[in-house]
């Protein structure tokens, strides 16, 4: 309602030190790809309806041997694009 009235309530969730490389939004859930403390990347989930901070984020895809590159959402689904041994991979 605030956005439609021209009064959006902006709130910073992350900054440069959080090393966010990609993001996707599905409903009230924000998914973030971060390389902070995870050189290959990890996927974090925030419930925006609860006014979260990044410290509230749940790790839904921990760092592994797949080098995560991008998050994409389509039709309510989350996809992670990455590489392993030089080959591209897609995770749902």
Describe this structure in words.
By secondary structure, the chain is mainly β. The protein has strands spanning 20-26, 29-34, 42-47, 58-61, 67-74, 77-84, 87-91. It starts with 19 loop residues before the first strand and ends with a strand.
| Poorly predicted runs | none
Biggest sheet, open or closed, and with what strands and sense? Answer: 4 strands, antiparallel
Strands of the widest sheet, in order across it, are 1-2-3-4
Q: Work out the radius of gyration.
A: 14 Å
Shape: globular
Name the helix and strand elements from N-terminus to C-terminus, one letter apiece: EEEEEEE
Give a quick precis of the structure.
The protein is mostly beta strands.
List keywords for this structure.
92 residues, mainly beta, three-stranded antiparallel β-sheet, 0% helix
SSE arrangement:
Blueprint: E1 20-26, E2 29-34, E3 42-47, E4 58-61, E5 67-74, E6 77-84, E7 87-91
